[in-house]
Design goal:
Elements: H1 11-23, E1 28-31, E2 34-35, E3 42-45, E4 48-51, E5 54-57, E6 62-65, H2 68-71, H3 80-86
Length: 117
């Protein structure tokens, strides 16, 4: 019997896709126009997900900039996108030469890094 929570996208699902994109060499990633930076947080909050403190809901549109041949590997058999499809989650992978990822609107602060100039 199918549980309704099985049809939800959870923060772990998003994180798995993001990790696959990073492993494929993605240079920039956004989720629903929230740019991911090293300090970004992705937290589940019921039927929404908080990214960088902003609430975003489905459908989740993940954009990535990188070498297309490597990023296309996300749709390989056994990859996380295929796992989601097997779990009846609708997934659509599109390639484009015109991806725009907005700049990060927050403030990046560094605790340990120093400017040595």
């Amino acid at each position: 019997m199918l549980n309704s929570s099985d049809l939800l996208i959870h923060d772990g699902d998003i994180l798995s896709i993001i990790n696959e994109l990073k492993n494929a060499g993605a240079e920039a990633i956004s989720i629903n126009d929230q740019r991911l930076v090293p300090t970004s947080s992705i937290v589940c909050g019921g039927n929404i997900i908080e990214i960088n403190g902003e609430k975003v809901g489905a459908p989740f549109i993940i954009k990535a900039i990188g070498l297309p041949e490597l990023l296309a590997g996300l749709s390989r058999p056994g990859g996380y996108l295929q796992i989601l499809k097997d779990d009846t989650i609708e997934v659509d992978l599109k390639m484009s030469n015109k991806i725009t990822i907005p700049k990060y609107s927050g403030v990046l602060t560094y605790k340990y890094m120093e400017n040595t100039k």
